[in-house]
Amino acid sequence: MTVQTVHSPAPERPDARRRRNRRRALTAVLALALAAAGTACGSDEPSRYSRTCGVVVDGSGSAAASRTGFDAEAKLKATLQTFLADKKCRKTSFAPITKVSKASKCQVSPLDLDPNTSKTADRERTRTTMRAVALSNALKLLRCAQKEEPGSDVLGGLSRIALSKPSGADASFDVLVVSDFDQGDTDFRLGRQDLSTAASRRTVIDGFLKSHGRPELSGADIYPVGYGMKYGTDTSRYERFDSFWTELLEGRVKAHVHTTYRR
């Protein structure tokens, strides 16, 4: 009878077991890294925009392209698309400045400047196209406002765009205001007010807000274009004008006013 001898494998040395475990761990890490890299390379979609913006367009007589006007059309063309791109605006609303801005029939619909598209669409090209549409709509609003009865209710225009301000303490709202800010409506003409002292300006602002209402723009960022242009080189009048609007917009309304696009 033949007897077969069975040989048991030698016990694995501890250091060999550790090397084998390290190789397995390294292989797993490399696999995860490659998977992550593949995901990153295949997902080059730019992040979506989320900011809410507003555009206010002054259609009063001073908005004309004349020696005494501030040329609202030229300023819209020069700044609007840059503003919308800089601020990464998505939902964008529009409001006119007319003799009675709150009641003006002039309006254009809000736009989504970063709309949902197919996965193969060029998102940056879509955004650029939509910003061009926004400019076209703003120009339509301007032309409508210029056909209405002459007047410039700046505060009413700000109150109207304030209706588009998103709710929530942390919600952003960037507003481009193409206007010389020369308030002149049936009940209030800025050029006839006593703005010579801080006390007189406070009195004027008190009455102005009482009769015209306070725009709900607390925390909003306002970017004027054409601001104070009628004063030209008249420094003292401009300083009184600027002090009036600074106190009203920043002191009373609690908005933040910027000079980024002012020209």
Account of the 3D structure:
The protein has helices at about 15-40, 70-85, 125-145, 155-160, 200-210, 235-250; strands spanning about 50-60, 90-95, 110, 175-180, 220-225, 255. The protein has about 260 residues and is of the alpha/beta class. Helix 6 links the parallel strand 5 (about 220-225) and strand 6 (about 255). The radius of gyration is 31 Å and the shape is globular. The protein contains six helices and six strands, in the order H-E-H-E-E-H-H-E-H-E-H-E. The model is unreliable at about 30-45 (pLDDT under 50). It starts with 13 loop residues before the first helix and ends in a 6-residue tail after the last strand. The relative contact order is 0.14. Strands 3-2-1-4-5-6 form a six-stranded mixed beta sheet, with helices on both faces. Keywords: Signal. This is Lipoprotein. It comes from Streptomyces endocoffeicus.
Our estimate of the beta-strand percent is 5-15%
Structural class: alpha/beta
Q: Number of helical segments?
A: 6
Name the overall outline.
Answer: globular
State the helical fraction: 40-55%
Keywords:
six-stranded mixed β-sheet, alpha/beta, 263 residues
How would you sum up this structure in a few lines?
The longest helix is centred in the first third of the chain and has 29 residues, at 14-42. This protein is globular.
What's the helix and strand layout?
Layout: H1 14-42, E1 51-58, H2 72-86, E2 89-97, E3 111-112, H3 123-146, H4 154-162, E4 173-178, H5 198-212, E5 221-225, H6 235-252, E6 256-257
Helix pairs in contact: 2-3, 5-6
